[in-house]
Amino acid sequence: MEYVTITAKQEYTSEDTSRKIIPFLFKKIDWPKLDIKYNFDVGGGRYNLATDYLAKFGITNLVYEPSRGKEHNMKVFKILREVGLSDSATIANVLNVIKEQRIRKNVLLLAKRWVKPNGKVFIQVYEGDGSGVDKQTTQNSYQLNRKTKDYFQEIKEVFPNVVLKNKIFYATK
Question: pTM for this structure?
Fold first, then answer.
């Protein structure tokens, strides 16, 4: 697997993109039908609403989020090592706020690194205005405004076994 770094710097930190909502992705997955104990939530934001939501299904959501700080993220990695990796990973509304393609790829590689073999990876993007014209939206945020299908090739490079259904990417490690 390619090298995964968590120190790459984005031009726009994406810190202003965290919203106090349960991302659509979490509500569209039929969690009770899956055999998942641990989910690795890449770019899970500032809030714990998705964590609380998954707890209802007996799933521990381990959030990797740069804005939560290095100490928090190192604890997440420690837990993942202790439990033998996660059963699944989620990347909700993350790729669309990262300007740099190499950092978007790094996000995908990070999910791949911490998911068990044959683990499930669920990815959703926010299309913004759907114009495909990317732009800075606040001092620390960026929006690619791409259609969901436009991320397919980037995701397929890291997860060859991926399908797109109802605006959600379903990948298997």
Answer: 0.91
